[in-house]
Amino acid sequence: MHITPLQRDFVGEVSAIDISIPLTHDQVAAIEAGMDRYAVLVFPDQPLTDEQQCDYSRNFGELEATLIGQMTKPSERRLGPVEIGDISNLDPSGRLRERDDNRRMYALGNRLWHSDASFRATGAGYSLLSARVVPGHGGNTEFADMRAAYDALDAATKAQIEDLITEHSIAFSRGELGFDDYGEGNADKVRPVRHRLVRTHPVTGRKSLYLSAHIGTIVGWPMPEARAFIRDLTEHATQPRFTHAHQWRVNDLVMWDNRTTMHRARRYRDLQEVRDLHRTSIKGTAMTAEQGPAMVAE
Ligand code: OGA
Ligand code: MN
Questions:
Q1: Which residue has a Cα nearest atom 6 of ligand 1?
Q2: How many helices (H) does the chain have, and how many strands (E)?
Q3: I need a surface site. Which of 18, 88, 119, 163 has the fewest CB within 10 A?
Q4: Which CATH number fits domain 2-283: 3.30.300.130, 3.60.130.10, 3.40.50.1220, 3.40.225.10?
């Protein structure tokens, strides 16, 4: 296995490995070490079935069921298992979704910079996206390095944010776009959870900003002040020098660490062209909680 840097210490391209078959312990360790160094790894030319994608993903921990999968009736899911996230513009019968399709509008939230499942108590660890059909134009996925963004903050800001606790909910990110139709009985799934704003990586010891469109407030702060501040930090953290755009080719598998990066989807002509990516995510570890309770006035 070989890793070629695409963007220094942030994005690497992995070659000379077949991830559709069982990996050795050493191969898994090498990929994890690559993830710790880079945070985003691109594996070109890896055709995978959903089952192979799940098997490969399980090398890195327990799979997480997607929220939208859990909120969707089995009969309305295009892809069977809830562990396979349907990141496409197709309905269950394989047709392009209409402009005002509820599920399409929900998915537009991916256009905002976010970290997967940060609306859950432990957030996600790695996410893995496998490209099955890609559009002719647009539809890139962009990544931002939250370690480099943290490092570049001035000392006063670092001190100010060190112990801050944020509240995340899917209702905040979707509310930003004016979407609030989650369907019957799903209200409990949008309740806010708390995370530290500054996380320390358990292996590398590097600090990073845990930002996400799902953040709605900072504990102990007036909401408008919190949102204005989070917006400033997000603007800082997503400057071009911290980001990388991935242009999809069929059979790309891209994996990223949600604890140290944010990502967003870019526009494409989704009412005309098919884009079909399948996602798996690994359950997060309690990295935030391991750092102990933060000092906050509530
Ligand atoms: C995701 C996601 C972005 C994209 O799958 O978690 O945010 O470009 N996808 O589709
Ligand atoms: Mn995402």
A1: 116
A2: 9, 15
A3: 18
A4: 3.60.130.10
Model pTM? 0.94
Tell me the HSE value of 114 on the side-chain side, using a 13 A CA sphere: 28
Nearest CA to ligand 1 atom 3: 265
H helix runs in 87-154, sequence order = 102-107, 146-151
Tokens of 9: 């210490």
Please report which residue ranges of 46-145 form alpha helices under DSSP H. 50-57, 67-71, 102-107
Residue 137 in tokens: 């134009």
* Cα–ligand 2 centroid distance for 110 (angstroms): 6
Given pLDDT bands bounded at 50, 70 and 90, which one contains residue 90?
A: very high
Asked if residue 206 has pLDDT above 50, the reply is yes
- Listed by start position, the domains of the chain span 2-283
User: What pLDDT, on a 0 to 100 scale, did the predictor assign at position 69?
Assistant: 79
Atom of ligand 1 nearest to the CA of 281: 6
C-beta separation of 207 from 145 below 8 A: no
Q: Whose CA is nearest to atom 9 of ligand 1?
A: 265
* CB of 217 sitting under 6 A from ligand 1: no
In angstroms, the CA 248 to CA 279 distance is 14
Structure tokens, 221? 């702060």
Query: Which pLDDT score, from 0 to 100, does residue 287 have?
Result: 47
